[in-house]
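Hey, resending since the last one bounced:
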Amino acid sequence: DVRWSDFGFPGRSGRESTLWIGSEGANTPCHLDSYGCNLVLQVQGRKRWHLFPPGDTSFLYPTRIPYEESSIFSKVNIANPDLKRFPEFKNSTAHVVTLSPGQVLLVPRHWWHYVESIDPITVSINSWIELDADHEARVEEAITRMLVCAIKSAENPSDGDLWLNPTEVEATSHEINLQYLNKAVSAYFKCQKTSVSEQAHSSSTGAEQRTSASCKRKKREIGCEPKGCRLQTHEFDFPTSEAEDPQKIPFGPHLIQVLPQSQERGSMGTAAVASDSRDLLHENQGEHIGKLHCKRKQLVMSNDCKTPAHQMDSDSSPHTSQTALSTNDLLDCLVNPHVINLVARLLLERTEV
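The structure tokens again:
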């Protein structure tokens, strides 16, 4: 019954949706989606959304552990942030909105969001909208999957480190991950080729045909064509104060800008976050828990390779008294979004040549 086409996405129906049911205090940990943008319809109860722009990514301490395809989690507990561990979080800018029944929220591409239910029962429906930029993002996700699965699978399985999010059923093999990567690269160049062909065709036409091409581009920007190549990312920037004219606001005059709210960080989590109360994701995907698991305790050996670091005297050398680096620490650096983006671009350049 949900007509996403009413929001500027022709042909998109409620079948391309996900149903969320939660109890009071249920929450989705702060994360960003690698793919597309997001439309969320609140059906019953209210949910409070805390949104952060892409420019705040470094302030939110991104991590890929627990691993879940297309979800980059924040290490920060938004409801009760530890500023001693994550001091840069104080530089972030929260956009807070309470979504009531009948309202629809547009979450632009790569906007971080922490969501909590503030009523006894909440029901919402969302749809992820594909974007042109997703083709490069899928290459980045394929690279991330290869690295995470290869490195974490090499660890001792008995150490109890639950590195897969419950939505990821199992770790895929290197061969399968390599297939994902090749398919993602092929899809990227296929989309690039389609875009170049359209530009060449439109540039060779006369004034009358240019008008037609202009209409075609407009259709493509709202998700009509070509198939697999959807909306341009810049279409989803929030309107600025200079764009108050309803004609300039995407999707018509009823779009309400979500502005930053000045409030104490401690008051952000007004609803108690229950550790065993989470949103339920219904699309044959299991529970979207995203619980950040504690890193397993590791030992640093002294130079003689016999004495654990935690047994050393306090006056030991700094090299032996430091906290041990874990596999997760290494992965946080290797699969940092900025690093993966650079690797993906280098890989695409190599493939293109």
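Residues 26 and 278 are 4 Å apart (CA to CA).

Sorry for the duplicate.
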